[in-house]
């Protein structure tokens, strides 16, 4: 869907070179990594991502950055399932604990919002390997942007 814009520079003050097709949808980076949103509702989300050679670190395991990207995106989709469309929010804190390596196959991210107030949302994502092993636990805090007042 976004392949034709992957190399387009993002320029300050210019419009983005893409639009999401829906509120809960993969953006160019997520599509580039091969992420697929399996479900997102009621503060939970499940995403999958194939392990391609481009995601390898030097020893052939899935790079930690790819694991973090999947976990963070899954939690963002879980959050989107609770917020009104168009709400701005960002990750402000994240932590990842590895339990086992990802060596092959598709990985699965199971995300859940665990607490929410007016401006802060916290959640957890479990990363599961193709053989069903828990590879990592991701926790994060997101902040909801305050609406801008019109003067």
Please describe what this structure looks like.
With 151 residues, this protein is α+β, with helices and mostly antiparallel strands. The chain contains two helices and six strands. It has helices at 28-33, 64-80, and strands spanning 36-41, 44-49, 89-98, 107-116, 120-128, 134-144. The protein has a six-stranded antiparallel beta sheet with strand order 1-2-4-5-6-3. The chain is globular. The model has no long low-confidence stretch (mean pLDDT 95).
Walk me through the topology.
Blueprint: H1 28-33, E1 36-41, E2 44-49, H2 64-80, E3 89-98, E4 107-116, E5 120-128, E6 134-144
Antiparallel strand pairs: 1-2, 2-4, 3-6, 4-5, 5-6
Summarize the structure.
The chain has 151 residues and is an alpha+beta fold. It has 2 helices and 6 strands, in the order αββαββββ. It is globular, with a radius of gyration of 16 Å.
Shape: globular
The main sheet comes to: 6 strands, antiparallel
Mean pLDDT: 95
E-strand count = 6
Features:
151 residues, alpha+beta, 6-stranded antiparallel sheet, 6 strands, globular
């Amino acid at each position: 869907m976004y392949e034709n814009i992957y190399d387009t520079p993002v320029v300050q003050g210019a419009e983005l070179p893409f639009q999401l097709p829906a509120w809960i949808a993969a953006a160019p980076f997520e599509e580039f990594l091969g992420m697929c949103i399996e479900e997102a509702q009621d503060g939970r989300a499940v995403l999958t991502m194939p392990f391609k050679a481009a995601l390898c670190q030097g020893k052939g395991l899935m790079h930690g950055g790819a694991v973090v990207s999947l976990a963070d995106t899954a939690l963002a989709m879980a959050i989107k399932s609770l917020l009104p469309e168009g709400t701005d929010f960002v990750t402000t804190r994240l932590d990842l604990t590895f339990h086992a390596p990802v060596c092959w196959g598709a990985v699965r991210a199971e995300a859940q919002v665990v607490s929410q107030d007016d401006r802060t949302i916290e959640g957890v994502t479990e990363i599961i390997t193709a053989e069903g092993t828990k590879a990592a636990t991701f926790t994060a805090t997101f902040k909801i942007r305050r609406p801008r007042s019109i003067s």
